């Protein structure tokens, strides 16, 4: 927990300190991995920036014994109002793999509802689209140095299954068709779906998913054919549940919009089970689009052996003779662990990527080059880049509308790309998660997810800035003590921004002027700093390993073309 002495010294607030480090993640079974008692950080580490315009940013170490030589150690007591802070804006985002690295790096947690306090990093659900939403103020940048974990409208154009499919359609449908199954929208395209089902090859399967669903809920499978009644029954079920005014809104909303996709009939099978990959993708900018893929990820298995001749069924129904097919068809961990709990034993539902790589080599060896780990990951990288390019224009435009004078540099986002492979090694995009779960259900889970969050935050370059005592008092936070040592003050002047900083509404930034030599220099320095502190991330766009192709040009800006020159 957080000690009373820490409160006396004015470093934490009174009403959240106990919960910040002592609330266990739901379903977490690895309490012996780390102590719930997070000691007060004795040092805040600052890593230098290559750019003379940027102050040093907080360095979050994986291991306290391996700090880079150029990292500066600062006593937290000397930082006063510039002490690094974080706010978790939703209880559903409160995970060990995020919270513990921040606390150990000297960050202090502020109340979840302290929306007017300028935290260094705000982590929460996706920002609402409507300005009128009561949650809107939680995601408005108040300072040029703040970071949020979502770009504006990223969920609308990527996290929402229908929105993602629309982004791909509008961008280049012929390219999208090479890595996404045929997709239609229900009920918006009901007539087209009825025609497809009626005239389609008898027995061809289609999977129905709520546009905004999660955890495998509401997923159903039908077969096409004029004589097959499964798709009619599914339409009837969706229509009934969407219009049931006696049900609460939260129960009805998932049924109001569905995507209908061709089912991948020949999935890659490992040890008898269907699988997909959860790949962690960091985006530090949408203009220029800058994409990183982490070398840590998860392989998620269906709970039961795959059966290709399963009957059509509502996979989301209560367990029964047909609904149990969901454990063969769906790889959602939240679903699989329900069966795991019922059977009181481990079903080996998740692997780290390195175990998957080893197993592929054992199964296929050198005789199946298309199914090698290297080949599969190369195809996955292409899917990731093409998908983000499809959403780039809309998200970068939304980001510029919320500019606070720093070129839209208030955002860094972690995406969870779910990708499946068929038995020929083709990669298929299943969905993009704008809030991938950071829940740690095992030591392996914690290792993977804490590594990803640590590296993402280091790439995000969280710069410190001074806050006046009144900022703390307004939010019910005990103001930190300010140092009076002139030597310390001189040193901190080189390390810290004032809160006002560059934060002028509507102001422009050199980063938005591609012809400016300053803008190109700042861009190069930013990319270089991200590269230095990327940890397990690899930049996959722009990258010399993935050169630009003609169909990319329709969405690239001058900044994208400039960034492509700085390949590392």
From TrEMBL:
Identification of the protein by name: Tubulin-tyrosine ligase, putative
Pfam families recorded: TTL
Keywords from the named record: ATP-binding, Ligase, Nucleotide-binding
Gene3D superfamilies on file: ATP-grasp fold, B domain
GO biological process: microtubule cytoskeleton organization
One annotated GO molecular function: ATP binding
GO cellular component: ciliary basal body
């Amino acid at each position: 927990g957080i000690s009373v002495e820490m409160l006396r010294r004015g470093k934490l607030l009174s009403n959240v300190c106990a919960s910040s480090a002592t609330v266990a993640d739901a379903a977490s079974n690895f309490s012996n991995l780390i102590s719930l008692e997070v000691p007060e950080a004795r040092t805040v580490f600052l890593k230098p920036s290559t750019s003379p315009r940027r102050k040093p940013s907080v360095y979050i170490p994986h291991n306290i014994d391996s700090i880079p030589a150029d990292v500066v150690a600062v006593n937290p007591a000397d930082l006063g109002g510039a002490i690094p802070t974080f706010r978790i804006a939703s209880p559903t985002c409160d995970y060990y793999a995020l919270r513990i690295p921040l606390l150990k790096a000297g960050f202090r947690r502020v109340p979840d509802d302290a929306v007017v306090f300028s935290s260094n990093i705000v982590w929460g659900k996706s920002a609402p689209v409507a300005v009128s939403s009561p949650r809107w103020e939680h995601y408005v940048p108040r300072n040029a140095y703040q970071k949020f974990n979502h770009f504006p409208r990223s969920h609308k154009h990527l996290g929402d299954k229908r929105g993602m499919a629309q982004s791909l359609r509008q961008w280049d449908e012929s390219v999208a068709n090479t890595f996404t199954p045929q997709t239609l929208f229900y009920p918006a395209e009901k007539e087209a779906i009825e025609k497809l089902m009626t005239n389609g090859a008898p027995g061809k399967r289609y999977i129905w998913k709520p546009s905004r669903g999660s955890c495998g809920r509401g997923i159903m499978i039908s077969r096409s054919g004029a004589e097959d009644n499964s798709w009619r029954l599914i339409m009837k079920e969706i229509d009934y549940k969407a219009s049931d005014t006696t049900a609460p809104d939260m129960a009805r909303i998932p049924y109001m919009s569905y995507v209908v996709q061709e089912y991948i009939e020949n999935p890659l099978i490992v040890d008898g089970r269907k699988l997909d990959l959860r790949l962690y993708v960091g985006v530090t900018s949408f203009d220029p689009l800058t994409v990183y893929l982490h070398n840590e990820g998860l392989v998620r298995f269906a709970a039961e052996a795959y059966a290709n001749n399963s009957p059509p069924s509502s996979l989301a129904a209560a367990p029964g003779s047909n609904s149990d097919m969901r454990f063969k068809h769906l790889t959602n961990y939240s679903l699989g662990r329900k069966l795991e709990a019922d059977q009181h034993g481990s079903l080996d539902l998740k692997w780290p990527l390195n175990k998957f790589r080893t197993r592929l080599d054992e199964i296929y060896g050198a005789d199946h080059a298309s199914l090698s780990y290297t080949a599969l990951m190369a195809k996955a990288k292409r899917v990731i880049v093409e998908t983000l390019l499809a959403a780039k224009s809309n998200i970068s435009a939304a980001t510029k509308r919320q500019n606070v004078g720093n070129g839209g540099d208030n955002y860094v986002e972690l995406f969870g790309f779910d990708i499946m492979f068929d038995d020929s090694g083709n990669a298929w995009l299943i969905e993009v998660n704008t809030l991938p779960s950071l829940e740690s259900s095992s030591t392996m889970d914690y290792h993977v997810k804490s590594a990803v969050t640590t590296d993402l935050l280091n790439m995000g370059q969280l710069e410190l800035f001074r806050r006046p005592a009144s900022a703390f008092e307004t939010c019910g936070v005990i103001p930190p003590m300010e140092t009076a040592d002139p030597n310390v003050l001189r040193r901190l002047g080189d390390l810290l921004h004032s809160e006002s900083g560059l934060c002028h509404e509507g102001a422009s930034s050199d980063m938005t002027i591609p012809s400016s030599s300053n803008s190109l220099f700042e861009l190069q320095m930013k990319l270089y700093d991200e590269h230095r502190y990327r940890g397990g991330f690899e930049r996959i766009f722009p990258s010399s390993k993935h050169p630009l192709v003609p169909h990319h040009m329709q969405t690239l800006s001058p900044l994208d073309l400039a960034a492509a020159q700085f390949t590392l």
